[in-house]
Amino acid sequence: MSQQPLEIIYFDIRGKAQLARNILTLFKIPFVDTRIKGNTPDDALKQLAPYKQFPILKIGDLILAQSMTIARFYASQNNYSGKTFIEKALADEVVDSTQDLLLAFFTNKDDEEKRKNYFEVTVPNFLSTWESKLVSGNGFIARGDSYTFADLSVFTVVEQLKLQERLVSFPIIQKLFNYFVNHEILGPYYKSLPADPQ
Ligand SMILES: N[C@@H](CCC(=O)N[C@@H](CS)C(=O)NCC(=O)O)C(=O)O
Predict the structure, then answer these.
(1) What is the 169 CA–ligand 1 centroid distance (Å)?
(2) Torsion-angle region of residue 156: left (phi > 0), alpha (psi -120 to 50) or beta?
(3) With a 6 A CB cut-off, is 48 part of the ligand 1 pocket?
(4) Which residues form the GST C-terminal domain (predicted)?
(5) Where in the chain do CATH 1.20.1050.10 domains reside?
(6) Which terminus of the chain has fewer CB atoms gathered within 10 Å of its CB, N or C?
(7) Which CATH class is domain 85-181?
(8) What is the pLDDT along the chain (198 residues), one digit of tens a residue?
C-alpha cells in the first residue's frame, strides 16, 4: 500500500482538507494534492466519494472519507496523536472543536448579525478555551510533552480563519502559531500555498 501514490482529493481551498495536508507535509509523506477544478466534482469523482463529499484519501483502490479520520490516520501512524489514551482523547476533543469553529464560520459568514456574533462571542470563547488548555498542558494542548495534531489543528484553523490578529490576549496560542508558521517544513509550505478566495 505504501508504494502506491497517495492522493488527497478536495476543493481548491484549505477547508476540511488542510489538517491532513499539513500532517502529510510535516512528516514528509509525499502526496498528490488534487484540487477539484471549478470546485465542481464530475460524476466520476462523485462516484469515488462514499458520502459524495470531500475530502477523500485515495491510495490505489483504497478510499477513505471523512477529513478528521484521514488526519487522525496519519497522526496515529506518525505518533502525533498523543501518547496515552488520555492525551489522545484530549487531542481528539480539541481537533473536533477546531472543526466546529471552522464549520460555524461557514454557516454564519453570510449574515451580518451572525458573523458579528461569531467573531465577537464564538471565536473568543474557543480561543479562551484553547489558551486555558495550553496553560494547563505547559504549552501542549493535549498535555503531553510535545505537540500533537491537536496543536497543529489549532494552528491550521487560526491561519485559515485569519485569527492571528486576534491573538493579543492569547499568548500561548500566539506562541504555538509562531512555532508552526516558522517551522522549517511548514513555513515554506505555507508560503507556497495558494490563497483561499475571500
Ligand atoms: N464530515 C465530512 C464533511 C465533508 C463535507 O461537508 N464536505 C463538503 C465540503 S467542505 C462537501 O464535499 N460538500 C459537497 C457536497 O456536500 O455536495 C468531513 O469532515 O469530511
Answers:
(1) 33
(2) alpha
(3) no
(4) 84-198
(5) 85-181
(6) C
(7) mainly alpha
(8) 457 899 999 999 999 999 999 999 999 999 999 999 888 999 999 999 999 999 999 999 999 999 999 999 999 999 999 999 999 999 999 999 999 999 999 999 999 999 999 999 999 999 999 999 999 999 999 999 999 999 999 999 999 999 999 999 999 999 999 999 999 999 999 999 999 987
- Ligand 1 pocket check for 67: Cβ under 6 Å: yes
Task: In the chain, list all ranges with CATH 3.40.30.10.
Answer: 6-78+186-192
| b/e map 180-196, b = 16+ CB within 10 Å | beebeebeeebeebeee
What length is written for the chain? Answer: 198
Nearest by Cα to 123 from 104, 139, 151, 137? 104
- CB of 21 sitting under 6 A from ligand 1: no
Q: Which atom of ligand 1 is nearest to the CA of 15?
A: 10
